Model the fold of this input.
Amino acid sequence: MLEAQATKLKQGLSRLIDSYADGLIDKQEFQPRVERSKEKLRKLEQTLQALIDQEAQQQELRRMVSYWEEFAQFVTAGLEQADWTRRRELIRTLVKRVEIGTEAVQVVFRVEPGPLSAGPQSDSLPHCRRRELTPAQQYTPDAV
Done:
């Protein structure tokens, strides 16, 4: 639809130039009409490019979501059969550090949250916020 409008504007601009060249319209009438047509065409091409960029971004996002879903299925299936050493390697791969305070624990992941995460604690993943520890959950050196 936008491509058709752009083609129509280009044809109109071409006819306008031909009319001026044939002497059917004078310069005072020609100049403002050409400028308006060029401006409309420029805005239409910008809109078209924005739509093309948006579609490409959506395709990339769909591809990434598909990739992460496959990865999650692979990890889930692998974790069921994984021994403690394999699970520990996976945790070390994903987790940058664990900050342990007297009243809270915060997990900081190696992968930063994307532009969709918005909130006061954007330096951590939304489901890994600080939580209160019970005495049974206190950190022990052998737990990691």
Observations:
- Strands lie at 95-100, 104-109, 131-132.
- The longest helix spans residues 27-81.
- The radius of gyration is 30 Å.
- Residues 117-131, 133-144 have pLDDT under 50 and may be disordered.
